[in-house]
Amino acid sequence: MTDDGSGRAVDRGRAELARGRVQLGDGPVDDARETLLLAVSLLAAEEPEQAEAARLGAVDAAWAAGDLAGCLKALDGPGADRSGGTADYRAGVRALLEQRPDRAAGPLGRVMAHPDDRPEHLLRSAVAALLLGDVVVARRAGARALAVARDRDSAALQSRALEYLAYAELRAGRHAQARTHAEEGVRTARRAGRGNTAAHHQAMLALAASLVGDRGTVTAHAAGALTTACRHGLAQAATLAEWAVARTDLGCGRPLDAADRLGPLVLPGARRGHFAVWMLAVPCFVEAAVLAGRPAEAGAVVGDFARWAELGADPHAPAQLARCRALLAPADRADELYLRALARHDATGGDFERARTELLHGKWLRRRRRLREARARLGAALVGFERCGARAWAEQTRGELRANGVAGRHGAGGERPTGEELARLTPQQLRIARHVAEGATNREVALRLAVSTRTVDYHLRNVFATLGVRSRMELARMVDQQGR
Questions:
Q1: Given its phi and psi angles, is residue 336 left (phi above 0), alpha (psi -120 to 50 degrees) or beta?
Q2: pLDDT tens digits for 424-481?
Q3: Distance from C-alpha of 55 to C-alpha of 336, rounded to nearest angstrom
């Protein structure tokens, strides 16, 4: 039994926990953190599980605000349970915030490996996976959390599960899937009265749309996210939204605008973006700053990005780092660094990031009059951008191809090449082209030629680039013309 004093404290603690959860969903997150920490102090003695729920809510609030010190304070405040079910989660998050990834992998790995079917545990598993860069586990845990939330008919839990799913898909480079989750997430969050979660979904919709280059859509989603973010102190959503607008500028050939917008987010200073997000925008800033004639600014953040890449939390970071270094390198080293970046893209996949590297490499080659190599690289970039629906980036690549003297083969009014151009292919490229023209898939071609599917994909991109074709149907038509 508890005395009246402790009973009143527990009752007040429960009320503060409920109020803090409401504020966290649709209110200033700094207020939510303070309310939830008060709930922790009131509940710790009599209801430790509820106190721990309040503590994790306070961590979420500080995280959303980009308050690193607040996260650390909430993680290890008075009464923290160091042996309960959330101890590993808190220990792993703390280690990462303190930049000690070697101490984070063990506890966060245990969180990933043993989630039960409670949605809160599944969501923590998804967060742990995202922090460690394992998007496969993050998607799996998020999908399980979403299924449980739907069974419970809980719109609030569904909106959170969709948030982690959308973010995992973005990290994996699967923008279409991220957009689908985020669109449902906005609707579900609004139905649950969770305006802050809706703002995060809008920021992710802006990022997904920035790949396509649809400025109107990006601006609308970013404005919606920023309206709530500014009112409620959502630094993470604000950083994602600003990054989305800047990436659109870069895709549309406006690097100066992109550099001006991204500079405050990634350079040291009071306006630097959210601590868990700004590093993801560094490759865009480096590219924009170099193209805008401000390489010194770009060089100032490459060292930070190199340390981030070493953590292993982002599978695309090593390739992006090599690309950043290529942009800043002297002429005698840039080619090697671009090739290193492309090799690392081969290990991680992702059409969009690889195509961006191919585009930059193609520009570099063209400006050094290595036109045949530039044509191949730019053609491969065009295929990659078209495959993932990056229309603005594809148009930028077509402009480079026109400047390279191949406008007629890429839709600028000239005639398509004839079958005689097949003579320009290497023997291996010609074999692959003929199998593809017969209707074989890349996997089937790989089996016939006893090579890897990745090898077939690489050669086929070069075939498309060399011949100036943009579809398997066009390639089949050309091969048929030669055979007549």
A1: alpha
A2: 778 788 888 888 887 788 888 888 888 888 888 888 888 888 887 777 877 877 777 6
A3: 49
Helix, strand, coil content of the chain in percent (nearest 5):
80, 0, 20
The sign one gets for the Cα dihedral 183, 187, 192, 196 is: positive
| Distance set, CA 408 to CA 384, 411, 466, 468 (Å) | 20, 6, 13, 9
Angle subtended at Cα 383 by Cα 446 and Cα 133, rounded to the nearest 5 degrees? 80
CA–CA separation, 227 vs 180, rounded Å? Answer: 22
Could you tell me the two tokens for 57? Answer: 């809510």
Answer whether 0.85 is exceeded by the pTM.
no
Read off the DSSP letter of residue 329: S
CA triple 95-100-103, angle to 5 deg = 65
Q: CA 424: distance to chain centroid?
A: 38
pLDDT digits (tens, 9 = 90+) for 219-278: 999 999 999 999 999 999 999 999 999 999 999 888 999 999 999 999 988 889 998 899
What contacts 24+ positions apart, CB below 8 Å, involve 364-370?
A: 364/326, 364/334, 364/335, 364/338, 365/335, 366/400, 366/403, 366/404, 368/331
Residue 133, helix vs strand vs coil? coil
Sequence-separated (6 or more) residues with CB below 8 Å from residue 457: 442
- Tokens found for residue 189: 């969050």
- Those residues whose C-beta lies under 8 Å from the C-beta of residue 170, and which sit 6 or more positions away, are 178, 204, 207, 208
Nearest to 313 by CA among 458, 133, 483: 133
- The answer to whether 425 touches 483, Cβ cutoff 8 Å, is no
Tell me the residue type at 379: G
Amino acid at 346: D
Do 41 and 63 form a contact (C-beta atoms < 8 A)?
no
